[in-house]
Amino acid sequence: MRRGVLVVLTLLGILSCLSPAAGPSLFLIHAYGQDAKSITPRITATEPAALASGSKVTLKVRGFELKGATELRLVRPAEAGGTDSNAAPIRVEIKETKDAGQAKGLDNKLVGGTQLVAELTLPDDLPAGIYDYVIVTPAGEAKEKIRVLAPDSVLDEKESNNGFDEAQELTLGKYSRGSIQSDKDVDVFALPTQAGQQLKITLISGGPLLIDAQLDCYDSRRQFLASCDDEKSRDPVATFKTLADGIVYICVSSAHDIGGEWHSYLLAVEDVK
Ligand SMILES: [Ca+2]
Ligand SMILES: [Ca+2]
């Protein structure tokens, strides 16, 4: 009998934890967690997805609490003359900070509702690599990394490139910088290859929270070779071995057919054998 009461009381205890009364408090903890996160400046996407040295570029950055930002600093690494006072400066001018529009199909609470536009002048001698950058805002600093490429290693995507017949030529070891700028946009690249090459095709998006990119690869007969949606993150990596000489078509798209602002990417093709 006493054991039965104990069982009943235990069950009541479990049920009370699962009751609606417990629900709102759990929900509030979650909501406060989101709010606490959102007041810290944070970067969620850039356009373009990478920079090239020796050029003047307009960089758009999206994230949390970027409105009112006063400074963007791209940090020259020590091995790239970071401590050398004679090294050419990386000039940055913030042009605008404002509320960002609604991200397509996403909640701004997840991807940030602010943005900034800056103009960067990158010296010719700035070595390729992954650079840290800092955005200084009234609410604190936001830090992220961005890739800087040698100008001769990058090819900007050119529309229209939406099908095999309009594919844009890309060569091994080079990058293509582009964007899925509208819904259902597909960017097709034609890569000349030889039989037996071990290809690794990597897509690095400007903001994996905003674009869920997909890679699909076909041979010169337009037969399917490989595809990838997500790898370690939502950015895809496709690896496969070529069986014959000829063109490999690389198709970049959104896994959800959503394009627009903040859907920038950098595509890298390597022979990893
Ligand atoms: Ca495009
Ligand atoms: Ca296209």
Structure description:
The chain has 273 residues and is mainly beta. It folds into 2 domains: 42-149, Immunoglobulins (Immunoglobulin-like); 152-271, Jelly Rolls (Sandwich). The protein has 3 helices and 18 strands. It has helices at 2-18, 22-38, 108-111, and strands at residues 42-47, 50-52, 56-64, 71-74, 91-99, 114-121, 129-137, 140-149, 154-156, 168-169, 175-179, 186-193, 198-205, 213-218, 224-228, 237-241, 246-254, 264-271. Strands 9-11-18-13-16 form a 5-stranded mixed sheet, with no helix packed on it. The longest helix has 17 residues, at 2-18. It is globular and about 55 Å long. Residues 1-34 have low confidence and may be disordered.
Topology overview:
Elements: H1 2-18, H2 22-38, E1 42-47, E2 50-52, E3 56-64, E4 71-74, E5 91-99, H3 108-111, E6 114-121, E7 129-137, E8 140-149, E9 154-156, E10 168-169, E11 175-179, E12 186-193, E13 198-205, E14 213-218, E15 224-228, E16 237-241, E17 246-254, E18 264-271
One calcium ion (CA) binds at residues 157, 159, 178-181, 185, 187.
Report the CATH C-level class of the largest domain: Mainly Beta
Quaternary structure classification = single chain
**CATH architecture heading of the largest domain:** Sandwich
Q: Which word captures the global form?
A: globular
- Overall number of structural domains: 2
Roughly how much helix do the residues carry, as a percent range? 10-25%
Order of helices and strands: HHEEEEEHEEEEEEEEEEEEE
How far apart are the termini? 73 Å
Q: Number of helix segments? A: 3
Secondary-structure-based class equals mainly beta
Count of extended strands: 18
CATH topology annotation of the largest domain: Jelly Rolls
Sheet with most strands: strand arrangement: 9-11-18-13-16
Strand content: 35-45%
Average predicted local confidence, pLDDT:
88
Radius of gyration, in Å, reads: 24 Å
